[in-house]
Amino acid sequence: MNDHTSSRSGGFRKSKAALFGSIAVMTILAACSVNYQAYFRPPQIPGASFMGVQSCEECHEEIVSGFDSATHAKLLADGNHAVNMGCEACHGPGSIHNDSGGEIGTIHNPQANPDTCYQCHLDVKGSFALAHAHPIGDQITCNDCHDPHYGSAIKGGGVASMREGETCVQCHQAQAGPFVFEHEATRDGCTTCHTPHGSPSEKMLKTSNQMLCLQCHFQQQTAPDVILIGGRNHASFVSRGTCWTAGCHESVHGSHVNSSLRY
Q: pLDDT means per 10 residues in the chain (263 residues)?
């Protein structure tokens, strides 16, 4: 191959690499553009225009004044691209609602339709599609467990671990206790064992077998066919099923009569 041919071949390879590079960049930019429009577009209300937070405050003064403490308040952006993006980012433009004196149906209500929440929380939307999930919609709304306007969006979040359980026992009263013999895991909240939105496992558990319990209960194998858990050989038990279905520890939340939570 002469120098002229080699030069042409090298130039072709460089041009080809540049072409593929340009295509890759355009693909990424296009994907970013589509994602932004799909995920962060405020709810649309035909014929309505954005009014700003001051308009909302005329009737909802208590909610607006308390919003500074909310987790969602940290999402507010500054600059020309975020003008009037306060309450209306989730509730839609409020001019028709304002002019009608607050008539029902003239503003978007995320409590009745979680699609607005899903624009940011796509992972949660996916969780509700799993085999075992809370029946979001008519029976349960996001607001039953989350507060969008005051304090932490996750009720019982932060250091308030007991409040998390209090949120769950609004519906799951049989698991509330108090019990004579409690399961210590409940002190850390229900999400120690359960995924709150949805799970592939029954009872919305984080995993479907005894591996869930072994997250906390230390397992030690000292010899063949010896699996010590809590100082007792469980080798013959672990093949029967999960810890709570093998007839051993059925009262997983707490018991009034048995310290091993058997019944």
A: 49 52 52 47 87 88 88 73 73 92 89 85 91 87 88 65 71 88 86 91 87 83 83 80 81 90 86
pLDDT of the residue at 79: 64
Yes or no: say if 175 and 249 are a contact pair by the CB < 8 Å rule: no
* Lookup result for tokens 């035909």: 46
Per-residue pLDDT reduced to its tens digit, 129-149: 999 999 987 788 898 888 889
Q: Which residues of 10-19 are buried (b: 16+ CB within 10 A; e: fewer)?
A: eeeeeeeeee
- Which residue's entry shows tokens 């064992």? 193
φ, ψ at 93 (rounded to 5°) = -60, 140
Instruction: At 82, list the tokens.
Output: 């975020």
Number of Cβ within 10 Å of residue 260's Cβ equals 12
DSSP output for 123-163 = HHHHHTTSSEE--BTTTB-GGGTB-SSSS-SBTT-TT-HHH
3-class DSSP state for residue 223? strand
Distances (CA, A) of 254 to 57, 60, 248, 249: 47, 43, 13, 10
Q: Hey, is 229 helix, strand or coil? A: strand
